[in-house]
Predict the 3D structure of the following.
Amino acid sequence: MLRNYLLSALRNLRKSQSLSVINISGLALGMASSILLFGYITFQLSFDNFHVNKKDIYRVALYSYQNNQLVFKSAENYAGLGPSLKKDFPDVIDEARLYNMGSKNNCIFTYNQSSFKETHFLYADSSFLNIFSFPFKSGDPKSALSKPYTAVISESFAAKVFGKESPMGKFIQMDDDDRNSELCEVTGVFKEVPENSHIKFNILISYPTLYHRKGGMGRYETNWNQKDFYTYILVRPGTDMTRLESQLPAFMSRHIPGKTALPAENRLALQPLEKIHLNSDLSDEPEVNGSRKAVSFLTIICIFILIIAWVNYINLSTAGSIRRAREIGIRKVLGSNRSQLIRQFLTESLSVNLVSFTAAIILVGLLQPVFSRYFGADFALASIVTEGHGWAFIAFLATGAFLSGLYPALVLSTYQPIAVLKGKLTASLKGLALRRFLVVFQFSLSIFLIIGTLIVYQQVHFMLNQKLGMQLNQVLVMDRPGHWNPSDSINSARVQDFKQLLKHDPSILAVAMSDAIPGKGIRTQLNYRLNGFAGEKPLALNTIGIDEDYFQVLNMNILAGRNFSNQIKSDEDGLIITASAAELLGFKQSTNAIGKQLQHNDVVFTIVGVVNDFHQQSLEKKMEPVVFQYNGNDYEADEYYLAKVNTANLQQAVDHIQNTWGDIFKGNPFGFFFLDEFFNHQYANEKQFGILFGIFSILAIVIACIGLFALIAFMIEQRFKEIGIRKVLGATMEDVLVLLTKDFIKWVLLANLIAWPVGWILMSNWLMDFAYRINIGWSIFALAGSSALLIAVMTISIQAVKVSLVNPIKSLRTE
């Protein structure tokens, strides 16, 4: 029986080739789009899932409060935290610390006179490789990092540094800009860290190596003052995490008792490993995280695309049912019952879905490499079904395919053979109502997607073009050298020579030094109070060290007072504050702050200037008050060298900087980046989300248009003679167009009334993540609605023009 159903389905597909092509192409495009998008979603949801102990690994986050106000929340913590947690809590069976040198220092690795700069570089407890499941190629992960001056490296780093040599047992030199120098033995090679890891690295150096640095064990083992370590714990399976977390305040009071006497409080939070990538919004993250909300929106689009494709299928199947009425009547006369007809039509529907799915898989196979490379989503088709949500997606596909075929089967199987064979069958009012509902529903989804695309584009455009309080274009940035001379005076002279030599080139407009740059979180936060007000609560303010040319390079404005000067010795204890910092300190006007003194611990600073407010980080974060200290000739304090260049002579400027660097900082690889690109990289996730939203929204609209195009063709076929009569009676092409479009215009207008409030609610929720955001104006909804209307009219017009050009004699010839 199944064979007969399949043969009948094949004959029907051949008989209705145009309908079959439209159905299969629409479904295939919808399935391919949703599979690609779901592959990206799966990749985002798969972060850190490859670790065997993933469900029992937690990162300890630090929340710092000042005067009961949240000052910062960081992914980093104290050196003494991990060992103390393991000692105090039996449920913590292991801990691991990571010291993120690559993000804080300019690190240079040398082997056989060849030097390499590396930013993905960490110091790691030996337990790190036991808690996590990073795959090894050579060496023993259990002991590879147990001794001082040992290191494990990635396959790619091994190939870059050692070529075809075996790196095992070889020694590699690490030097950094804090004048640390460590010769480490390679004790292991690991396979490339998977792309779906929230933390990435090419080199791990053993944690005991840090004990030989300045500060020794006290700095790197028991310290509770400096927060520059990632701390991970492995808990016993089945641990009550709520109970464990409730004990952390008392734990902090035991280990930092002095904090209780200050208007400051540190709180700990345990972050499940699997939720870090999409749910964490902390500072000091090792990599740029994703967004749970963005993934949710893309999931909605993924579902919408499939629904629109299936709505097309249902619409076209029911609209074309008149064509098959005679076949159904004859089948019933010859003895077919309703259940047999339902099975027949379900077989046809599933056959169409299966052919479409096969075509979709082929299309995905062709597009997936390009898609993965462009969007950084490293996924294979097989990986989609390795997780629970993957099987849920497959079940959704199967259920949708079944239901999209079930309704047409039920409709077709109800036809009465007598009415059919007498030629008295007409389209039912129920069928027309359903098709109207489906068209309205389809256009509601399409209009929502247009609204979403417009709002995402406007928000990203707003962030990229918003005034930041400084100018980042034309600014080239270099990390300070990793190799230093043993002599301080020589190093200081070299830095000053470098700065002066750059200034001599006319293609370089200004040069400055600082310990922080826009686009990166400020690591230094100091407590200040007005001098002479000992009882006043201190204010925690972000602090940046700069030289006298910093504001010139970034084109910032001194609102009151003056800039720093290397000719004024007292500026070593001088401060320049932002306007919001002045207001926070109680100065109603910027000029009132000049000459006032702020005290940090036992050091008294004098405010010499007030500068305009600016955005240090992306517009997702609120603008914060900032204090600038003068680094002067303290070359070790300046981590970044900034050069404002004339872009008309860009290559000349870069060549001059590179040559000067090579002459003065010998043995240091030269590298640079442009500050505006670095700053805008903070919006990489938003830009990627906007592109994905836009691309797949367009695809969804295209699929909807395919269905609308075919549906109009069926309607014209049913009204072919009516149109011919109207033309004989004098109807023009415009009259025919109005006849065919007026109902659809009503449906699109109704779809707008449904889509607008839904779009406003959902997109307002998305915008809540941004401290600075656009206002959703009525123009967005008007543009979305008019776009949908225009698309519908254009789609209908193609068919309307075609039928209006047909000679009416042809349509009336059979009468």
In short: Confidence is low (pLDDT under 50) at residues 419-429. The first helix runs from residue 2 to 15.
